[in-house]
Specification:
Radius of gyration: 19 Å
Shape: globular
Number of strands: 10
Low-confidence stretches: 113-122, 257-261
Mean pLDDT: 87
Number of helices: 10
């Protein structure tokens, strides 16, 4: 962590696809331990920014620093090893695999057994796998109320539970920064409440920093410690929920009258 308390720092980040400017010199700072939300209209550049952090995209210019380390040029698996994991707006699970096997995949970047041991599933690889299953049962499956369905094939689960499995897989990576890309999109009110309750409980119990992208403004305004607003690839405002709600530019471009404080 940097001396000024920032876990993640985005510095002058730009990204373009041909003639389309997805991000234009974006600066953001996320303090350790906060629930930080990034909001804005569709196409504002929110997911592009997250894809740069998690290295699905490579920015054209700028820097990404995590715990005072420049991670701009790292590969995606190395970013995970550093302590950053994420969920996806569109669920990216292996639908033909079980809940438990999907969650195990999130931990594999931290396993130490070599490829030969892994292929024959013997010795160190087998011990690690057994230890991993016990750990996931104790720390994640129980916490997210997934123990009773751990052997179910993901494709047979309702949408809300699949979203929870996606969250569990991200947690299995042992993150310090958890990025949630629209975690309650498409959920009904009860599913939304369950997901947000789980996120808040995990944040408190594990001491996580959460980076949230979400269009449900009731959720964002109720749980965020700090909010940044993007539009057309640029950061246009940031502050507390109360400050963002009263910002005339944010109201005009995104919030309308729905969230006036």
């Amino acid at each position: 962590m940097s001396a000024n308390g920032h876990l993640l720092e985005i510095q002058n980040l730009s990204l373009h696809f041909g003639g389309i400017q997805a991000l234009n010199q974006v600066d953001l700072k996320v303090e350790r331990g906060l629930l930080f939300s990034l909001i804005g209209p569709n196409g504002a550049g929110k997911t592009s920014l997250v894809n740069c952090i998690s290295k699905f995209y490579t920015p054209n210019s700028g820097r990404i620093r995590f715990k005072d380390r420049d991670i701009t040029s790292l590969e995606s698996h190395d970013v995970v090893r550093c302590g950053i994991s994420r969920t996806f707006q569109n669920i990216e699970l292996f639908k033909g695999m079980t809940v438990l096997d999907n969650i195990k995949l999130g931990r594999h970047v931290h396993l130490r057994s070599g490829p030969v041991a892994g292929m024959i599933y013997w010795g160190k690889a087998r011990r690690e796998e057994k230890e991993l299953e016990a750990l996931l049962n104790r720390e994640i499956l129980t916490f997210l109320d997934l123990t009773s369905i751990k052997d179910r094939v993901v494709a047979t689960l309702p949408y809300g539970l699949q979203k929870r499995v996606d969250l569990a897989r991200a947690l299995a990576c042992k993150p310090e920064l958890l990025i949630l890309d629209e975690p309650v999109a498409g959920m009904n009110r009860e599913e939304t409440k369950d997901m947000i309750d789980h996120v808040q409980e995990i944040k408190k119990a594990w001491g996580l920093t959460v980076f949230l992208i979400e269009h449900d403004m009731e959720v964002v305004m109720n749980i965020s410690d700090w909010i940044a607003v993007m539009n057309f690839g640029e950061k246009m405002a940031e502050g507390t929920a109360g400050e963002v709600q009263k910002n005339p530019d944010v109201i005009r471009i995104y919030l309308g009258n729905a969230c006036r404080g």
